[in-house]
Amino acid sequence: MKIKAIVLQLNSKFNNQYAKDYCEGKESTDNPKCKYEFSTQEIEIKEFKLKKDIEYNITSTNLFLQNMIVLEITIDNKTIPIGVFSKELVQKTINKYHHKKDITKFYLYLKDIPFKLVDRFMYLTESDYQKIPFILLHN
To answer: For residue range 40-97, what is the model confidence (pLDDT) as tens digits?
Structure first.
């Protein structure tokens, strides 16, 4: 089985009528649908889990962040996180399984609020970000 994770932050100010009237129904640089979009490559996995409301250990120094959502995958009997999110950031998640390609596309939608991206896989609110010591962020 394979998985592809897609993180999106939709633009709450996207004007659909403007897109229809002036851009053939499509987004434009002045009127984007997404503020942020990232996707992983397709990853061959054994399984994946979405864990909600957990304490996430951000470092080996036992710094825990509360109320996190973590997308974990298992490869060769090793479980690793591929996405860590402050609970307040997450609007919704959607899994779409494509049987012919044996792939799950996992969509995670972020609320249209500011966030900090740490180490390319941690999406944190400003308050969670401030809990991380400066030295850990710049190592």
So the answer is: 999 999 999 999 999 998 766 678 899 999 999 999 999 999 999 999 999 999 999 9
- Cα(120)–Cα(13) distance, rounded to whole angstroms? 26
Torsion-angle region of 137 (φ positive above 0: left; ψ -120 to 50: alpha; else: beta): alpha
Higher-confidence residue of 61 and 113: namely 113
Please state the φ and ψ torsions of residue 129, each to the nearest 5 degrees.
Answer: -60, -40
- For 7-112, where are the alpha helices, taking DSSP H only? 16-22
Distance of CA 69 to the CA centre of its chain: 9
Predicted TM-score (pTM) of this structure: 0.86
Instruction: Answer whether 65's CB lies under 8 Å from 58's CB.
Output: yes
Looking at the 3D structure of the chain, how many domains does it have?
1
Domain span at residue 107?
Answer: 2-137
